[in-house]
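queue> pop job 88
queue> type: inverse folding (structure -> sequence)
queue> payload:
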């Protein structure tokens, strides 16, 4: 089932998410719905807060990038109760966008390498190291479950320049081809 994506201004996007117990109801269905929602919106990652759930869960699928770079082939993962335990490497600046902040892309600085501990969809524990774009995608989704948005990582001047666009998102004045849920708008 395709779920509405919560837009900037929704309080759930600013909450620190809670751990998921291994008996969380309908988890497999939720994960399937998250992938379907993400694909419908042409995304490569989606965190539970973006669909209104304040739980520590996100999904990533980079397969669509494999056409340009085969290293992304088969990278489809579910991250349950993740914790980034180490950030290392150079700080790299790259443009990011977000399904919860449509129409806005900004350059964001992130560490090039991370170590993350998480459970997969079968509650099997993993402790893995990622770098480059893999690390960036994971950090972006991880920030969502920490109540952080990519625009929190841009300069004050850039935030001022996009303020009216952000206010329009809050009011539901957005033209998306996917289902959304804004604070004030009727979506």
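queue> result:
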């Amino acid at each position: 089932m395709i779920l509405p994506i919560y837009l900037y201004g929704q309080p759930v996007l600013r909450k620190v998410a809670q751990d998921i117990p291994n008996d969380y109801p309908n988890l497999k269905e939720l994960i399937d719905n998250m992938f379907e929602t993400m694909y419908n919106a042409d995304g490569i990652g989606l965190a539970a807060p973006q669909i209104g759930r304040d739980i520590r869960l996100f999904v990533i699928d980079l397969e669509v990038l494999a056409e340009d770079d085969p290293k992304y082939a088969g990278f489809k993962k579910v991250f349950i109760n993740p914790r980034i335990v180490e950030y290392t490497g150079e700080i790299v600046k790259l443009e990011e966008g977000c399904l919860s902040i449509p129409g806005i892309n900004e350059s964001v600085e992130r560490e090039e390498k991370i170590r993350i501990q998480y459970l997969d969809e079968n509650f099997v524990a993993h402790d893995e190291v990622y770098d480059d774009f893999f690390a960036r995608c994971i950090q972006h989704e991880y920030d969502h479950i920490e109540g952080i948005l990519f625009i929190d990582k841009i300069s004050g001047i850039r935030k001022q320049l996009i303020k009216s666009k952000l206010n329009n998102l809050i009011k539901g004045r957005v033209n998306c081809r996917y289902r959304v849920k804004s604070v004030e708008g009727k979506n």
